[in-house]
Amino acid sequence: MSAAHAAGLCKAEETTVFSCELKQNHKTVSLCASKSFTEQGGFLQYRFGQPNKIELTYPQELKGSLARFGYDEYSRPDLSTFVVGFNNGGYRYELMETTEGGSDDGTTTRKLIVTSKAKKSVELTCLDNERTVSDITTLGGVLKCDKGHEIMDGSCN
Predict the structure, then answer these.
(1) pLDDT in tens, 85-135
(2) How far apart are CA 54 and CA 48, in angstroms?
(3) For residue 111, which of 134, 89, 88 has the smallest C-alpha distance?
(4) Is 32 in contact with 42 (CB distance < 8 Å)?
(5) For residue 155, how many other CB atoms are within 10 A of its CB?
(6) Is 90 in a helix, a strand, or coil?
(7) What was the pLDDT predicted at 3?
């Protein structure tokens, strides 16, 4: 896994796997990992809020945190989508990155999608700026296969 510098809500001693400011509310969503993050160990933690006020941290306990997240991807010519998801308190959280078009002229969008059975899903779009970090594709070989999301025919079985 490549080591991105700490950004967003991640600490200096952590690796930022994903981080962006959300267009709708200007809050930050970050996926932070230990520097020694591999399939055999380390931690992964989701954080949401602002640097001076983190509103949600998942999971609270870092030990065994890798098992709480899942990963899937879908690719076809001129389209690729990568998803990291988890369930918490009756809600489903997904960080999604989609690239459409060729590698030279394609557009990439990143989103936070939150759903619950009782409410309509909420999609928050990441701003595309210099503070955005995404190494989400590196999680494919580390996290378990996750079929709990909207993408059908993903690559994991």
Answers:
(1) 999 999 999 999 999 986 677 899 999 999 988 888 899 999 988 889 999
(2) 6
(3) 134
(4) no
(5) 13
(6) coil
(7) 45
